[in-house]
Task: inverse folding
């Protein structure tokens, strides 16, 4: 792979805190290597800002290998940027060429208020899990693991849903800021397993209630969430969620 | 003399006996006992959830925006357990034995045996929680081999085992939060331990959003804050992984055990330039099928495909014919460094070796052709079918490599180089996981106890969950049973005020420096000293120089660091400065420990202590002990030695030739 350097114009959302109105600032960065990750390009910009005596840009990031779900930049109108099934930290600069302009914003959603610059508050996701995203088994109560055979296809399907990293790109991608893909991934993960059967109906109803309370919007089936999900979580999970929800309500066993 | 409190009796009976005789706390008393848990990775989340279920009042802290983001989430390969589901002769004893031997006889037998005993319960617990482990078509759990052991005891969930285990523990934790048994403090960083009358009684934490300092009381404090690999700046750790919680505890009296024991993982994507912020691991499983080589000619700049077979040096196969490419991590890492240092490295940095799948693709392709009855297939068909097999086995890893490097590993060999991955050293703990400060515990990677001088693959997840689910719920009761008369201490106690004042003082001092050099720049400089002089190979002269250099760097840091912004706001530069300041002190202690341990063992290689053909030379006579360092004022330390007695496993020299 040929490596090259580039100069870029960056338009970045700056916002001091949750109360501040915020706005775009424009920055120039020089000699960015095509081998850098997108966040390493931000490291270069921040180092430059610090040396100029300015405040660096605040953004969430941690593992930088695409699995922790912390990084969350809206890049040229797309959550996590242009590459399919890729988090911001795994996007690399060879995507860009000399002279490009890149616009970077935080996730935009009422339920994800901005803390500072590109950093948002995603604790609404934790509260949705608290409302039922678990199997109620205390430590020390488990039978031997192989006493419960599980159909491999079901187990694989459950695993595919459990691959969600809770980054919130689905919400950021959705014009309604709906959290249906996130919620449906957790409901599917647990509903597909025999261990999840006991609490299946109360779980889905309670989690949907909590999602509504947090201020996420409704799903209108545009499927932008799946297109932008870095882990490729399928919208078929939303279909399952709807069936689970209706089934629980209709049966009257949801309490 | 330090007391590790290993119970008397037969090795296999120690833990059972302990559980049968340790003190218990009745349910009514549990409700008035408060426990602080710092960190929410596998150890912290499992401990906080389990203790909440038992009825204790728990407060959990993490610096990330959610408990689910702790770095345990990034573990790829799997988790070991002595289930013997494969009927291949595995047992508690064999897992115990492999772990002791893999640790190069520098781990404590009692702890390791307990770890092997509870390993099977972990799998049961995780499956009950809904962790979607890989399964066979019959519906039962699947296993794979790992890290050169002779049995298949590794449970896995594709290449995302850590993620699935952590989500399981996180969900249990969130359930306890919903029930009100655990209070969660995310975006909070612990900045000191509060000691009252010699016992740990709470912490000072900083709310990272507001910058406010908070005082939190606990009858006991659990540190589950992970390892300190980021002292090297570049490592496979997450950007936020840090030693601060452990270091504050150390400065308040907790001994630090074997700080020089770090694991350098042989297969990581190499550094591509000065901008590099972290390194990415490529799972150890790749060495099952890949062949590692460098050119036979020094400074060879030809493309891999232009180098003919007889001009390639498969140095692991040459040096270690018995184990070949499957030698343990420490051996593979040193061998790669040796070749690169001698001028045979590849890639633009010359700090990389090839991991080549061409032979595997051809071999698998031929097998597939044979299956189809085609015994004289054209080469392009062999390659095509072979690539399909490799894709099925390793596809996600190959994709990750391509995303990062832009190169297609099906066509050209991957370039890899060793990188800092895990720290076996950590806060010294006794059998009950209590540090040398009463009421202060350390769990998971934060403690030193189970992996000796080298950790085996798929054992970190096992240890984190063993400590949190199955050890601390018993051992903490043995301490808290005597605390039932201790009322919650109000946080206006002078010791809380004093600790908060010290933390505030340090933050003000940092912010007041207003120098010219960024925190990141100092961290990089520290990392370079550590990697060059306390990395894969160490010698007395280099370590002595490193100590002098680190002291000078530390002094410079406290005079010239530049931290923009204010104290009472979200300020990620200040957060980093707090962490790097502690790494600068830890780095010195690591070098001192490496200097003191004038032997080679596991991941610790002292150039002065090697065999004639360049292998690690242990010295059991002089160094069969745990080095437990006690902090004294102004970066001075006193060494305590905990002798290691091997009652069951007889130490031998490891050989892989």
Result:
């Amino acid at each position: 792979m040929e490596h090259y350097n580039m100069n870029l114009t960056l338009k970045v959302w700056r916002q001091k805190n949750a109360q501040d109105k915020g706005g775009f600032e424009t920055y120039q960065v020089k000699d960015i290597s095509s081998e850098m990750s997108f966040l390493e390009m931000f490291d270069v910009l921040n180092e430059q800002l610090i040396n100029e005596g300015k405040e660096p840009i605040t953004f969430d990031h941690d593992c930088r290998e695409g699995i922790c779900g912390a990084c969350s930049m809206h890049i040229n109108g797309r959550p996590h940027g242009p590459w399919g099934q890729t988090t911001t930290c795994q996007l690399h600069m060879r995507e860009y060429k000399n002279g490009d302009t890149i616009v970077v914003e935080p996730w935009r959603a009422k339920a994800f208020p901005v803390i500072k610059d590109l950093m948002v508050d995603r604790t609404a996701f934790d509260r949705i899990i608290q409302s039922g995203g678990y199997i109620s088994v205390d430590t020390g109560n488990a039978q031997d693991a192989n006493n419960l055979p599980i159909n491999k296809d079901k187990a694989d399907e459950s695993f595919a849903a459990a691959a969600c990293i809770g980054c919130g790109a689905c919400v950021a991608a959705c014009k309604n800021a709906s959290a249906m893909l996130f919620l449906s991934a957790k409901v599917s993960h647990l509903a597909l397993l025999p261990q999840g059967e006991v609490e299946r109906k109360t779980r889905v109803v309670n989690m949907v209630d909590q999602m509504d309370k947090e201020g996420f919007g409704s799903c209108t089936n545009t499927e932008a969430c799946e297109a932008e999900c870095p882990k490729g979580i399928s919208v078929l999970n939303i279909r399952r969620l709807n069936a689970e929800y209706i089934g629980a309500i209709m049966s009257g066993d949801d309490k | 003399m330090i007391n590790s409190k290993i119970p008397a009796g037969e090795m296999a009976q120690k833990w059972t006996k302990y559980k049968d005789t340790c003190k218990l706390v009745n349910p009514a008393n549990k409700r008035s006992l408060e426990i602080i848990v710092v960190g929410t990775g596998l150890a912290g989340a499992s401990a906080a959830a389990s203790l909440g279920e038992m009825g204790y009042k728990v407060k959990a802290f993490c610096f990330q925006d959610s408990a689910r983001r702790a770095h345990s989430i990034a573990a790829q390969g799997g988790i070991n357990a002595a289930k013997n589901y494969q009927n291949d002769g595995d047992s508690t004893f064999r897992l115990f034995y492999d772990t002791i031997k893999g640790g190069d006889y520098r781990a404590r037998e009692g702890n390791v045996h307990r770890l092997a005993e509870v390993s099977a319960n972990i799998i049961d617990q995780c499956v009950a929680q809904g962790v979607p482990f890989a399964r066979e078509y019959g519906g039962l759990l699947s296993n794979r081999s790992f890290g050169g052991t002779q049995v298949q005891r590794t449970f896995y969930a594709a290449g995302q085992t850590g993620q699935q285990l952590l989500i399981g523990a996180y969900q249990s934790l969130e359930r306890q939060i919903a029930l009100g048994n655990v209070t969660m403090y995310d975006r909070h960083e612990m900045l000191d331990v509060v000691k009252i009358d010699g016992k740990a009684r709470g912490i000072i934490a900083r709310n990272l959003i507001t910058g406010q300092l908070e005082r939190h009381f606990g009858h006991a404090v659990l540190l589950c804050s992970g390892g300190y690999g980021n002292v090297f700046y570049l490592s496979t750790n997450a950007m936020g992984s840090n030693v601060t919680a452990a270091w504050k505890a150390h400065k308040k009296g907790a001994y630090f055990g074997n700080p020089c024991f770090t694991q350098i993982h042989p297969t990581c994507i190499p550094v591509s330039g000065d901008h590099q912020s972290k390194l990415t691991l490529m799972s150890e499983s790749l060495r099952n099928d890949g062949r590692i080589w460098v050119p036979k000619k020094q400074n060879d700049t030809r493309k891999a495909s232009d180098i003919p077979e007889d001009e390639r040096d498969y140095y692991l196969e040459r040096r270690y014919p018995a184990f070949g490419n499957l030698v343990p991590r420490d051996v593979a890492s040193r061998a790669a460094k040796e070749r690169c240092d001698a001028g045979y490295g590849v890639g633009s940095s010359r700090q990389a070796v090839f991991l080549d799948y061409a032979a595997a693709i051809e071999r698998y392709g031929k097998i597939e052709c044979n299956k189809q009855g085609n015994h004289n297939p054209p080469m392009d068909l062999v390659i095509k079918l072979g690539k399909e097999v490799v894709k099925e086995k390793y596809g996600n890893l190959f994709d990750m490599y391509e995303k990062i490097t832009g190169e297609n590993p099906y066509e050209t060999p991957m370039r890899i180089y060793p990188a800092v991955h895990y720290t076996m050293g950590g806060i010294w703990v006794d059998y009950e996981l209590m540090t040398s400060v009463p009421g202060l515990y350390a769990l998971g990677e934060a403690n030193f106890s189970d992996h000796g001088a080298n950790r085996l693959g798929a054992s970190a997840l096992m240890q984190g969950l063993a400590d949190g689910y199955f050890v601390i719920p018993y051992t903490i009761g043995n301490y808290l049973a005597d605390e039932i008369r201790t009322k919650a201490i109000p946080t206006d106690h002078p010791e809380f005020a004093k600790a908060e004042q010290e933390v505030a003082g340090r933050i003000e001092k940092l912010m007041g420096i207003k120098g010219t050099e960024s925190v990141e720049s100092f961290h990089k400089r520290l990392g370079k000293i550590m990697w060059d002089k306390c990395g894969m190979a160490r010698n007395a002269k280099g370590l002595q120089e490193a100590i002098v250099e680190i002291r000078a760097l530390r002094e410079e840091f406290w005079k010239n660091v530049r931290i923009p912004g204010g104290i009472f706001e979200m300020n990620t530069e200040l957060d980093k400065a707090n962490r790097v300041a502690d790494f600068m002190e830890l780095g010195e202690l690591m070098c001192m420990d490496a200097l003191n341990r004038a032997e080679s063992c596991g991941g610790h290689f002292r150039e002065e202590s090697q065999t004639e053909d360049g292998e690690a030379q242990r010295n059991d006579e002089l160094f069969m002990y745990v080095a437990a360092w006690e902090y004294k004022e102004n970066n001075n330390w006193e060494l305590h030695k905990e002798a290691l007695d091997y009652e069951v496993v007889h130490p031998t020299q490891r050989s892989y030739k």
In short: The longest helix of chain A spans residues 236-251. Chain A touches chain B through 81 residues (CB under 8 Å). The beta strands of chain A are 5-14, 23-33, 74-75, 78-79, 101-105, 114-116, 119-120. The mean pLDDT of chain A is 96.
